[in-house]
Amino acid sequence: MGFFDEEKNVQEYIKIAEGYDGTELIKVLQKYLPKNTTVLELGMGPGKDLDVLKQTYQATGSDNSQIFIDRYKKIRKSADVIVLDAISLNTNKIFDCIYSNKVLHHLTKDELKQSFLNQEKLLQKNGFLFHSFWYGDKEETHHGLRFIYYTEEGIKKVIGNNFEILEIRKYKEFEENDSFYIIAKRN
Predict the structure, then answer these.
(1) pTM score, two decimals?
(2) Which of 64, 55, 69, 70 has its CA nearest to residue 22?
């Protein structure tokens, strides 16, 4: 059973995340990805970023937590959302972009490598990845959840040679340069 398979943990996360969404990150994505193209969000949680993505793109939300999916569908009955594991990515759909905001840092480095290999299979030729991570070089656990921090060089090693990195940039979520995003294009 995963952390977000328990209602109390979902409630706690929603409280912590109150007031935060990926609006600024999505503005960066819009420089690369044309309007009305398809985007898969990995780890949509309560759906704040998905709501923003849907303003510009044909966005599909996904999460490995049935609770998050059910909560979102309760409010937005016709929403395009699926239960999806961020490692195996077992879906037949193909997308122009795969997006996540501070989700993939919960995976081990080997799991993240596997996720990138599987993400490549879900992307159109020349499709994009856009992911954000905590910046640093450490691993820690909070409330049973793993957090792996990455540097630019660290993420380049994990992503491998199947993507051309277009941009890596640090930004401030809580403190200066505590986060970074990566934009990469499928070769």
Answers:
(1) 0.95
(2) 55
pLDDT, one tens digit per residue, over 107-133 is 999 999 999 999 999 999 999 999 999
Element at 14 (helix H, strand E): helix 7-16
Question: DSSP secondary-structure letter at 83?
Answer: E
Sign (positive or negative) of CA dihedral 63, 59, 125, 24: negative
- DSSP per residue, 101-162: ES-GGGS-HHHHHHHHHHHHHHEEEEEEEEEEEEBSS-EEEETTEEEE-B-HHHHHHHHTTS
**Cα distance from N-terminal residue to C-terminal residue, the chain:** 36
Contact 179, 132 (CB under 8 A): yes
117 alpha-carbon distance from chain centroid: 15
- Give residue 1's pLDDT: 65
Give the pLDDT confidence of 42-82 residue by residue, as tens digits. Answer: 999 999 999 999 999 999 999 999 999 999 999 999 999 99
Q: Per-residue b/e over 171-184, b at no fewer than 16 CB within 10 Å?
A: eebeeeeebbbbbb
Kindly give, in sequence order, each residue whose CB lies less than 8 Å from that of residue 143, ignoring residues fewer than 6 positions away: 3, 9, 12
In this structure, what DSSP letter does residue 10 have? H
